[in-house]
Amino acid sequence: MSLSTQTLKIVIVSNGDEEFGLPIQYVASIERVMEITPMPEMPQEVSGVIHLRGNVIPIIDFGQLIGNQKSLRTDSSRIVVLQKDDNFLGLLTEAATDVIDIDTASIQTPGSFAQKEDSLIQGVAKHNERLIVVLNCPVIFNNRNF
What we know:
about 150 residues; mainly beta; six-stranded mixed beta sheet; 2 helices
């Protein structure tokens, strides 16, 4: 009898000491931080837009998306460009540090939270003694009004 395990490849991004995983099938590219043009009348979490390879891409401050303070901009900061269908969205992160494979069976929904269809959190995975919050990328796109 053979047991097959399914793995999910994720990009690890960080905000402070916390690590988050973005499923790689939604990651179009990882870019160094460039000039972000502010846009009026946008939600507070929207830093502005960038022009990248012929596309104007809205940039969301990852720290504000997850409910923390604004992301610190350092030499390690990156813009993770997400893609869903023909739509692009950039996340301004403090760092994008790694691409790893995690066993899908290790992703658990925290028991004290009711898993809602529109939850930003897909689950929490334990990987090499690290806890990684795996984010639900379609929800990031669906909750944007721009």
